[in-house]
Amino acid sequence: MIQIEDTVDSRRFETNSNSIHFGPWHISYNISCILPSVCSTKVVCERDDDQFCQFCIYCKELTIPHFPDMVFPKNILTLTHKSGASINFNPLDALKRVANTVEAIEVACAEAWQESRPDAGKKKRTFDWTFATDYKGTFTDNIVIQATDETINYDILKQKEQILFYHDLTLFEDELHDHGVSKLSVKIRVMPSCWYLLLRYFLRVDDVLVRSNETRMFHMLNSDYVLREYTVKESLAKDLNIPTAQMKEADDVIPFLPVKEKVTEKLIVNF
Ligand SMILES: [Zn+2]
Predict the structure, then answer these.
(1) For a Cys-Cys bond, which of 17, 115, 146, 229 suits 30, CB 3.0-4.6 Å?
(2) How far is the CA of 33 from the centre of ligand 1 (A)?
(3) φ and ψ at 122, to 5 degrees?
C-alpha cells in the first residue's frame, strides 16, 4: 500500500517534511534552514546538560576549522525498512569525511579563500577547502554490504513509469569564494516498481578542475537488497574539450568526465 503524508508545521515554517510508504520501506525527508554561523543560544550551550544548538553540535563533531557557506543541518533523507534497517543521508556525517589534512588543490583561489576568512589564522590550508567527501550514506549495523557483479538496470529507469515521490535535497554548498562550487545533494525517485537515488558531490574550481563523487542506489520492489554504485570522476578543466560555460552545471559536465573509480556493492537489508 502506498500512502503519502505531507506535513508543514505552520508555526515553524522553516521545516517541512514529506514521506511515502513503499512496500516494506518508509521513505521520508526533512527540509530545514541554513546552519547559523555562530552559536545562537550560549546560555543553553554553555550549560552542563549536553544540550547544544546545531552550530555547537557541528563544532563538536567536526574537525575541519570551517564549514561550507551553506549547510542544511536538518536536510535529511531517510529510508527505513520494516526489519529495522535504515539508510540515511545527512550533511554532518558527510562533512565528517572531509579531510582535515590535505594535499590541497593548489590554485589561485586558495589564497583568496584564506583572505576572505581572516579568522582562519594559523590553520592555513590544513584542511580540504573544497569539502570533498566520499560519503556514501549512513547505515544501521544490520545492513550487510557485499561485493557484486550485478549492475543497476538503467533500462528500467528509462521506462516511463509514474513517479510517486520525488525530491532533490541540498545537504551543503559552498561557492569557493566565487571561484566555483562545491555541493552535496541527494535526490530520490520512487516509482511503482522500484526506488532510485543519487547522492552527488560536485566540485568545480573555475578553469582548474571538475570532479564528482556519485553514489547511486537502486531497489526493485520485492527484492531483498539494494544495489549501490559509487563512481568518482575527475578532469582538469584544460583537458576537457568543452566550453567553460558548459562546466557550470553538474548535469552538463559530468557525462564528459573520465571515470577514476567505480565500485558496485549489494546492501542486504532483510535477513
Ligand atoms: Zn550553541
Answers:
(1) 17
(2) 16
(3) -75, -10
CA of 58 to the centre of ligand 1 (A): 9
Measuring CA to CA, which residue among 222, 221, 256 is closest to residue 237?
256
Distance (Å) from CA 39 to ligand 1 centroid:
4
Distance 40 CA to ligand 1 centre (A): 6
116 CA to middle of ligand 1, Å?
24
Sheet containing strand 70-71, edge to edge, reads: 70-71, 165-174, 180-190, 194-205, 209-220, 225-236, 259-268, 144-147
147 vs 4, residue with greater confidence? 147
Q: Find the domain containing 163 and state its range.
A: 3-268
Q: Among 232, 88, 216, which residue's Cα sits nearest to residue 156? A: 216
Could you tell me how far CA 110 lies from the centroid of its own chain? 23
Average pLDDT on 164-183 reads 95
Q: ipTM for the complex?
A: 0.99
End-to-end CA, the chain? 22
* Domain total in the chain: 1
How confident is the model at residue 145, as a pLDDT? 94
Mean pLDDT estimate for the chain = 87
